[in-house]
Amino acid sequence: MCRPPAARESRAMEIVRVNGLRKAYGGRPAVDGVSFGVEEGEIFGILGPNGAGKTTTVECVEGLRTPDSGTVEVAGLDPVADHEKVTRLLGAQLQESELQPKLTVREALELYSSFYERPADWRPLAERLGLVSKLGDRFAKLSGGQKQRLFIALALIGDPRVVVLDELTTGLDPRARRDTWQLIEEVRDRGVTVLLVTHFMEEAQRLCDRIAVIDKGRVAALDTPAGLIGRSTASTVISFTPSGPLDERDLAALPQVASVTTTDGRIVVHGTDETVTAVISLLAGLGITARQLRVSETSLDDAFLDLTEERL
Ligand SMILES: Nc1ncnc2c1ncn2[C@@H]1O[C@H](COP(=O)(O)OP(=O)(O)OP(=O)(O)O)[C@@H](O)[C@H]1O
């Protein structure tokens, strides 16, 4: 779960700082002036639609790409100029294609340990990540969840201060995804800062202390999950099937209503808490019953669509 704001306020040190980052491919901007700071010890999410520039941004943080302009610092170091030093501070999740299918889990852990001067002991890491019974298994034979666990272990093997996880849970079943979330929280609880790229709202909402929503190469919003939800124009969704004829315009005229839609006889009103009382009073006055009445809070999903659609 997200830590309370008080815990966040006590941290001031930014371990990653991105300022005015720009990167184009063949003249087409992929990242177009992105700025954000990641505080030490937090899980910082980068959320955005396909092609928004998320991976390009984190690849610049990892020193795998050189920015066209702007600056990136990891613990005050330039990831390109000081690549070796940054590699010791920052663990990056591998892509599946980067591990040989015939390598066993043990061989992969030993190989990656050998890349560092002072690696973490891989044995307790393997134990914590539930990989001990898989040490002799070849990478190609592992399930999706087991591969992800191995990737987390390899990202942590250099004992980094920051770990970058890009689409870590894509393709996992719901249980494996939840297990992976728990692991990410454990990593953060050990004091490692996590930079998490994700498409999944639920994942971002559950794990991230703060989220940068990136859209078309720019930061559309940067806030806590609750802060992003609060920015949504409508924070409450009321849906019901009226027992008799009801004019949408009467609902639209109620206080704080952002939108009213009717699909197959079911009415959905987006508004605020105040709207709920107003809808119920209106229906009571008209002698209409609200069948299967549901009232829910706006999700990060809605906020995300709001924030990214504005820019279409
Ligand atoms: N090596 C490359 N050469 C040319 N264009 C690229 C390259 N890498 C990315 N792009 C383009 O840059 C834009 C941003 O891509 P990027 O992978 O950073 O986005 P993303 O937000 O991570 O997307 P996704 O969620 O789909 O992975 C896209 O339009 C993509 O097609």
UniProtKB/TrEMBL annotation:
SUPFAM superfamilies: P-loop containing nucleoside triphosphate hydrolases. One of its GO terms (molecular function) is ATP binding. CDD domains: ABC_DR_subfamily_A. Its EC number is 7.6.2.2. Keywords: Antibiotic resistance, ATP-binding, Cell membrane, Membrane, Nucleotide-binding, Translocase, Transport. GO terms for cellular component: plasma membrane. This is ABC-type xenobiotic transporter. The lineage of its organism: Bacteria, Bacillati, Actinomycetota, Actinomycetes, Kitasatosporales. Residues 16-241 form the ABC transporter domain. It comes from Streptomyces pristinaespiralis (strain ATCC 25486 / DSM 40338 / CBS 914.69 / JCM 4507 / KCC S-0507 / NBRC 13074 / NRRL 2958 / 5647). Belongs to the ABC transporter superfamily. Drug exporter-1 (DrugE1) (TC 3.A.1.105) family.
